[in-house]
Design brief:
mainly alpha; 13 helices
Amino acid sequence: MSLQGLASAAKSLSKYQWGAWSLVSLYISIGSGIVVALQYDLSSPFYSSTALDLLVPYGEFARSVHFYSSQFFFLFSCIHLIAIFEKTDEYTFYNWAILIISLPTAIFLLFTGYVLRGDSTGFSAGMIAEAILENIPLVGDSLNHLFFAISDRGMQRVYVHHVITLDVLWLILVWDHLRRYRIKVSNHIPLICLTFGFCLIIPAPIDPEKLGVTYISGPWFFLGLQELLRYFHPLFAGVIVPIAFVFALVRMRKGEKYFHIILYFIYTWLALYLILTTIAWLR
C-alpha cells in the first residue's frame, strides 16, 4: 500500500467515530473491571476466575463484558490511529510519540489481564514474559522483579500494574489528546447494546488445566511473538522486534525524511507478524 492508499484508507475510516467508540468501550471495561476486581483473589487467581463464572450472580457476564470491551477498546484505538493519520502534522513530534507509546501501554494492559486469569494461557504467557525480561542484559532481572516476579510473588505485581499503574500511565500519556474530545455515552447506546449482546452470546475464554499438552497458545496479539521465539533468541524476538515497530510508528509522520522507507518497514513488519500469528494459531 502506497502513501495514497494509506490516505484513502484513512479517509474512508474517518467517516466513523472510532475514537468515541474506543472511549465508550474503555468506560465499559473500567466499570465491569471493578466488578471483576472485587471478586478476584490474588492467592488463587484461577479458582477466583472460575468461581466468578459459577458462583457469583451474572459473574460470567461481568467477566465477559470486561474482557471483550477491553479488546474492543484496543482495536478501535488502532483503527482510530489510521483514521486520523492525515492529521498527524498537527501534532508536535513529542505529542505524537506520546500517543504512540500509549498503544504498547494498552497492549500491556490487555496482556496483564490475560495473565491474571491464572489459567493455562495466562500462566504460560506470564512465564514467557518473565523469560523474555530475564534475557535482557544487565537490567533484565530488575525489570522482571518490577513488572512480573510471578515465580516469586505470584500475581501481586501483575495485579497492581493492571489495576493501577498501567491505567494511570495510559491516562497521563493520552490526557492532552482526550482533552480535545467530548463524547456523550448516551449517543452510543447501540454500541453498548451490541457489546452486551455479544457478551451474552459468547462468554469470555478461560482455559482449564491442559494435562499432557506441551504447546499452549497465548493471547491473540501475542501469538506472532510466541512463534518468533521458537526461532530466535528472546532478546531479539521479544524485545528488539517489538521496539523496532514502536520506534517506526513514532517516526511515521509525513514530514519525516525517510517516511516512505519507514512506511514500507511497517507494512512488512505487519505482514510477517500476521504470517507468524497464523502459523501459531494453526499449530
